[in-house]
Amino acid sequence: MIKYFLFVVLGTCLLVNDVCSQDQKVIDSLNALLTGKTGGERFPVLYELTFQYIQKDNEKALEFIQDAEKAAVLSGESLSILKSKRVKGQIFYLLQRADEARKTFEEALPVTGGTDFRKEELQIYYTLAKLDLFQGKYDKALHLFFKSLELAKALRDTQHLALTLHSIGITYYKLKDYAKSLNYYQRSLQAHKFDPRESFFFLTNLGLCYAHLGDFSNARYFVGKSLRDCGPDCSEKGRINIEYAYGVIALGERNFNAAEENFLRSYSLARKTNNTRFLLDNIYLLSEIYIQQKQFNKAKLYLLEAEELIRTNIPFNLEVIKIYYRFSEFYLEIQEYKEASLYQSKYIDLKDSIYNEDLTNSLMKIEAEHLEHQNQAKIEAQEDVILLKEEIIRRQRTLNVITALLAAVVLMFSIVVFRNYKQKQNLNLLLEKKIKERTFELEVGRDALQKALHEKDLRISRASGRIVKSMNTITGLCAAGNLEISDPVARLYMSKLTNTFVQMASYFRSLTDEELHHLQY
User: What's the mean per-residue pLDDT of the chain?
Assistant: First the structure.
C-alpha cells in the first residue's frame, strides 16, 4: 500500500517551498517586519510566515495564508494571488479538508500567465490529482497527473516529473495493475536524483510492488535499501511505511507471525502520529491474519476501531471498501449472516461507485488520450527532426557550395603560385648558367693573365740576372782599375764609382725581389 506520509511530507516539503521547520527567531523577525506595513506590502512577510507553521501548526499556517491572500488581492498582483490560493489549498489538503482544498484550487486555476504561473499551475494540478486519488476517483486523478507530467516536462522540472511519475505509479498500484505501477516507479527513480533521505519511500513503494508481483527477493532488497537510506534516526512516518512493507512481504511468504509483528509496529506508529490512512491499512491486514487464525475477538476489536474512523468521514474510499469487505468476511466466518450481508451490501455499493464500468471506460479513454498525446508528441518531434535534418541538408549544401568556391580559389591561387615558382626556378637556372659561363670566362682570363705574368716574371728574372751580372762586372773592373791607378784623386773617384755600382746592384736586387713578390700575388 502507498502511505499517507508520501502525500503529506512531499505535498508540504517539496510542493510548498521546501520549508518544514519552525524557527522562533525567524518568526519574531518576520513579525517585526510586518510593523508599519499595510495593504499589499504585507503579502511577502505573511507568505513566509505561513511556511514557518506548516507541519507544526497547520491551523495557524492557514490563518497566515488567508491574511496573505487578502494582502495579495489588495496588491492586485496576479502571481501573488495565485501563490496564496495554491498554498491555502495545500494547507486545506494537509488538514484533510478535501472539499475546501478543491474549491480553492479551482478558484486559482483561471489565473494564468508566464513561466512562474505555469509552475504554480503544475503544483495545483498535482495536488488536485492527489485529492482525487484519496477519494478513489482514479480516472480524474490520472487525467490530472498526466497534465502535471506534461507541464513538468515543458518546464524541465525533473523534481516534479519524478513525483508525478511516482504518483501515477501509486494510481496504478491502487488499481492493482502492479506491472504498470512498477514501470512508473522505476521511471520516477530515473527522472530525478533525490537525496536518499528524501527518496527512501520511493524504494519502499517499489518493494511493495514487487511483493504483490510475488518477487519477494527484490521486495526485501528495495525495502531494506529504503530502511538504510532513511538512516538510524529514521522518522516515525518513514518507519510506518517500512514496517508495513515488511509485513506485506512476510504475509506474501505466509509467515504470519512476522507479518503480525510488522503490522503491529506500523499500527502503533500510525496511532502515535494520528495517521488515519495507515491505521486502516494495518487493521485491514491484521484482521485478515486474525480471521485466518480464528482469533475472532482480536479481529473484531480492530475492525470496530476502523469503523469508528470511517464514521469521521475520512476521504480514503479505497480503504473504506477494504474494511467493509473484511467485515463481511469476518461475519461470514462467525456465521452471523445478517451482519455479513449488511457489510457485503456496503462493500458492493461503495465499490460499484468507484470500480464501475464508467471508471474502466474513463481509464481506457484517459490512457488512450495520453498515449495519443505521446504519439502526437513523438510525431511532432519526428517532424521537428525532419525539418531540422532538411535545414541541416540545406545548410550543408550551402556549405558545400562555399567550400567548392573556396577550393576553386585555392586551386587558382595554387596554380598562380606554382607558375610563379616555375618562372623563378627557370630564371634561377638561367642565372646559374650565366654565372657559370661568366665564371668560366673569368677563370680562362685569370689563367691567361697568370701565364703572362709568369712569363713576364721569367723575363724580369733573366733581365735582372743580366743587369746584376753586368754591374758586378763593372764593379770588378772598377776594383781592378783602382789597383792600377796611382793618382789619389782618380782612385777616390774609382772607389766612389765602385760603391755606387754596389749600391745600385743592391737596390736593383731589392727592387727586383719586391716586384717579383707582387707579381706572384
Answer: 81
Q: What pTM did the predictor assign?
A: 0.62
Query: How many angstroms separate the CA atoms of 232 and 230, rounded?
Result: 7
Alpha-carbon distance of 277 to 368, in angstroms, equals: 31
Q: From residue 518, how far is each of 177, 444, 457, 510 by CA, in Å?
A: 123, 21, 10, 12
Taking a C-beta distance cutoff of 8 angstroms, is the pair 515, 467 a contact? Answer: no
Q: What is the pLDDT of residue 294?
A: 92
Cell triple for 439: 665564371
Is residue 54 within 8 A of residue 20, CB to CB? The reply is yes
> Hey, is 234 helix, strand or coil?
coil
Q: Identify which of 293, 232, 289 has the alpha carbon closest to the alpha carbon of residue 261.
A: 289
Position 2 scores a pLDDT of: 36
pLDDT at 260 over 80: yes
Q: What is the pLDDT of residue 10?
A: 39
The predicted pLDDT at position 515 comes to 58
Tell me how far apart the alpha carbons of residues 277 and 274 are, in angstroms, rounded to a whole number: 9
Query: How much is the pLDDT for 118?
Result: 82
- Are 266 and 282 in contact, with CB atoms under 8 Å apart? yes
> Would you say 116 and 132 are in contact if contact means Cβ atoms under 8 Å apart?
no
End-to-end CA gap in the chain: 121
Task: Tell me what pLDDT residue 382 has.
Answer: 63
Q: d(Cα 91, Cα 58) in Å, to the nearest integer?
A: 7
Q: In 3D, which of 471, 469, 493 has the Cα closest to residue 481?
A: 493
241, 436, 471, 482 from 490: Cα distances, Å: 161, 69, 20, 8
Phi-psi region of 176 (alpha: psi -120 to 50; beta: other; left: phi over 0): left
pLDDT tens digit string along 424-474? Answer: 888 888 888 888 888 888 888 888 888 877 777 777 777 777 777 777 787
The answer to whether the CB of 236 falls within 8 A of the CB of 262 is no
The mean-pLDDT minimum among 83-92, 206-215, 511-520 falls in 511-520
Residue listed under C-alpha cell 482514479: 138
Give the span between the Cα atoms of 308 and 303, in whole angstroms. Answer: 9
Strands annotated E in 257-403: none
Cα 160 to Cα 151: distance, rounded to the nearest angstrom:
9
CA 387 to chain centroid, in Å, comes to 27
